[in-house]
Specification:
Elements (H helix, E strand, L loop, with lengths): L4 H4 L3 H49 L5 E3 L2 E3 L4 H24 L5 H18 L8 H29 L5 H28 L8 H19 L1 H6 L15 H15 L4 H31 L4 H29 L1 H21 L5 H27 L7 H9 L8 H13 L2 H6 L2 H12 L3 H8 L8
Antiparallel strand pairs: 1-2
Keywords: Membrane, Transmembrane, Transmembrane helix, Transport
Protein name: MFS transporter
Membrane topology: Multi-pass membrane protein
Length: 458
């Protein structure tokens, strides 16, 4: 076809053709943050912190109880209560941070800043020894809140670097990349903890070094998205008078008032509150369950988590492909049915039965990354342009590593029964309620309400 003079004139056309290539480059850079923060989520929050904090607190316990802020607590329930407290703090802080982020182009800087602050707090866990378990409580609180804050900015960036039709794929690949990175470091830490005598280390020192390595990993690999992502200008921000903090409070108030105009997004958030709390509590308490209830060594639990990580890579990618064929909502619902079967099976695993424990870990790996990755991309379809960070701040008040209802229920059931079996089974309530609420979400209406493009499959 013959080109016209206008075709040959430099203009916005060639620049527009470069945009898909720029998006792909940014998506590849964005994947690295999942690679970075998964080290903390697996090695620290998922495996080592809970059992180690319990062990240190038990050394300081009087009558099988420790005192924290005037409360008498069982050391075994302490990790669940720490997670609950960090989530309550995040529930207040994250929406304000989201409002700030939506008014600035510097989302990648905020992502990196909170990631590095969280990594610094995570590094302090290395110094938790003997009876200073309170230092561990404070350090994990800060690290976990910063983990959630950084995730708000990370997921808001997802909306800016991907179109609606490719979001399930990009989100799923990010989760798969994260499981690969978290699994790689977990494999190294598995060797260090399991063979600590070979390296001339006590088990406690091996655990502390492993938690420190996760903090260094988190901080170091965050440099890649910070350097390679672009700053995108904010879009469609309401005009509110005052300084940045005053304007952010003003925008937050506007968003809270307007949430009733987006009932589908609100319904999904409530559904997500339930089923994600169940997922996060299983992740956060699985190591405690494996060690304290089933009697496995720390190295065995680390190895099982490594299995979960490896299986989760394929699980996340498979769920992403299934969503492209059947729609994200249907695939998430199938995942919740599998979660119900998992917590039911956990109730009946015999003490010390390694093969059933490994099979349970493999089942968790299949659905873990897939349900979380699709929940993130599915919710993004209901977010109005220009309010990505703010909406994801509400989302992350209920998100990974910050479950509070599930952790609270788990801790209370253990407190009253002195057994982790009924505590883990009680989480089935969260999957059932979350699934029933998700069934009420009208996907097409939510996309239309937000003014977003309708994907080919919903």
């Amino acid at each position: 076809m013959t080109q016209t003079p206008s075709d040959q004139t430099p203009g916005p056309g060639p620049i527009a053709h470069l945009e898909p290539l720029n998006r792909v480059r940014e998506q590849r850079a964005w994947y690295w943050y999942d690679w970075a923060n998964s080290a903390f989520a697996t090695t620290v929050a998922g495996v080592l912190f809970g059992p180690y904090l319990i062990a240190v607190a038990e050394e300081d316990a009087v009558g099988d109880r420790v005192s924290l802020l005037g409360l008498s607590l069982a050391p075994g329930s302490l990790p669940a209560y720490v997670i609950t407290a960090s989530t309550l703090i995040a529930a207040v802080l994250l929406p304000l941070l989201g409002a700030v982020a939506d008014r600035t182009a510097r989302k990648k800087d905020l992502l990196a800043g909170f990631a590095w602050a969280g990594a610094a707090a995570g590094a302090v866990l290395f110094f938790v020894t003997e009876d200073n378990w309170q230092l561990g409580v404070a350090a994990f609180l800060v690290a976990n809140v910063c983990f959630g804050a950084a995730a708000v900015f990370n997921d808001a960036i997802l909306v800016q670097i991907s179109d609606e039709h490719e979001r399930d794929r990009v989100s799923s690949r990010g989760w798969a990349f994260g499981y690969a990175g978290g699994g790689l470091l977990l494999a190294v830490n598995f060797v260090v903890v399991s063979a600590h005598d070979t390296f001339g280390l006590s088990e406690g020192m091996a655990v502390r070094l492993s938690m420190l390595s996760a903090a260094v990993w988190w901080a170091g690999f965050t440099l890649i998205p910070w350097r390679r992502l672009r700053n995108h200008p904010p879009m469609d921000v309401e005009h509110v008078e005052g300084g940045v903090v005053q304007r952010s409070f003003g925008q937050l108030w506007v968003t809270l008032r307007e949430l009733r105009n987006y009932p589908v997004a609100l319904t999904f958030l409530v559904a997500y509150l339930f089923f994600n709390d169940g997922i996060q509590t299983v992740i956060g308490q699985a190591a405690v369950y494996g060690e304290k209830e089933l009697g496995f060594e720390t190295g065995t639990v680390l190895g099982t988590y490594l299995l979960v990580q490896l299986v989760a890579i394929g699980g996340a990618l498979s769920f992403g492909r299934a969503a492209g064929r059947y729609g994200a909502k249907r695939v998430i619902l199938v995942g919740l049915v599998i979660w119900c079967l998992i917590v039911t099976a956990a109730l009946f695993i015999p003490d010390g039965a390694l093969v059933p424990f490994l099979l349970l870990g493999a089942a968790i790996g299949v659905v873990l990354g897939g349900t979380q990755a699709l929940a993130r991309s599915y919710f993004s379809l209901f977010v109005p342009r220009g309010k990505e960070a703010e909406y994801f701040s509400f989302y992350h008040a209920m998100e990974r590593g910050t479950s509070w209802l599930g952790a609270l229920v788990f801790g209370l059931v253990y407190q009253f029964t002195d057994s982790y079996r009924p505590a883990i089974f009680a989480l089935i309530l969260f999957f059932v309620v979350g699934g029933l609420l998700l069934m009420r979400v009208d996907t097409a209406k939510g996309i239309r309400d937000a003014g977003n493009e309708m994907p080919a499959v919903v």
